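Lab notebook, page 48
Experiment: co-folding of the full assembly
Goal: obtain a model of how the components sit together before planning crosslinking
Operator: M.T.
Materials (sequences as entered):
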Amino acid sequence: MMKELRDKTVTEALLKKIKDRADSRGSPARIMEVCGTHTMTIHRYGLKIPLEEAGIEMVSGPGCPVCITPNEIHEACLELVTQRENTILATFGDMTRVPTHKGSLQTAVPAPASQVKIVYSPEEALELALADSTKEVIFFGVGFETTIPSVALTVKRAQKERVANFSVLSALWLIPPAMRALLEAGETRIDGFLYPGHVSAIIGSRPYRFIADDFGIPGAIAGFEPNDILLGIAAILDQLLIGRPDVYNEYRRVVQPEGNPLALAAMRDVLETKDAVWRGLGRIPKSGLKLKGRYTAYDAEHKYHLRIDESSRDLPGCRCGEVLRGLVGPRQCSLYGKNCRPDSPCGPCMVSFEGACYIHYKYGDR
Amino acid sequence: MCLGIPAKVIDIDDSRQGKVDYLGTKVRVSFALLEDIRPGDWVIVHAGFAITKLDQEEARETLSLLREIARESRTSEDDERAPG
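Observation: model returned without errors.
Model output:
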């Protein structure tokens, strides 16, 4: 099936369909790809310029969890691992390279017998705690709905197995409230949304309904192969043409309308919403998650009495926040490609493989 | 971060742990987020968990749509080339 999803004849035919529809609409369309993994496919397969020629401007959105996690949470982690002995700070690789005013987890000098450890899953962090009870293991858990159920189940398992030396520092974010905030801010024109495929595998298609119904903006959930994305864009143009905004599901092989009920139940069981500050987007009501009361023993913020200082700022000159809101492209930042490169990033959008700046830098404009 | 890898289920034990085959590599994953999973099913794996099962019928429908588009495109190219 991968062959057909990447087939160049199909890609050409779909681009032509999209161009025909954009032409009959009469004006170029601005479509935001919410998810960084979509941004990656668009650039890797060289769709950005052909889409522009077909009358479609693709704009990157806030869908990179590493990018939207504000510096103050990284700084709280830095404080933990540099000041607490016998502590293992476990997190996904990208998170260790995000630069802050206090350095990054990669450059930090841990306290005696402490360390930063890269893991691939929350369960792997829990295994570290099970393997050595003399260490306090803190999982710096970052992610959207795709990742959140895995974190929730890991916390449940920790409680079931009475693991006392494990906790989670939550950097867990919900996509629909962020999209509402973006639309309510009204800073940038968006004619359609390409919704994230794997977030939708968990939450289903219904949570985006308000975007079509209340804001009148078309959208499509799409998979991550080039022809998936083009099918999604074609569906958005159909909605624009007939003037009937909807939530089209191109990724039906993976996304059910109701999402994944077991995953949603695990999230509801372990976590509750809180107002949260996103990089670039600021405070968004009910857009973050914390552990529920019966799991507070596993909440690192609670366990270590962390103070997360919200006055922390991005590094001088970094425009990551504006990139995440779709206000500027990476090239409009004066640091891009000069002081800020993947080997010496000034902000997370140049660190994460889902960050718009990193993707532009790696694949170029194509 | 939201990269999800399609993989084929090899086996699954009573504690809902098991192995998948991802491009020939066997990887341990948890199936705790899914019901009714059997060896031979395809799943999307993310951060050590299978997060969703692939609906084979829907996959076939998308596949035939893509083949239809490819066929149409070739036919219209032939039409354009056809001598008047």
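Interpretation: The first strand of chain A starts at residue 29 and ends at 35.
Next step: discuss with group before ordering constructs.
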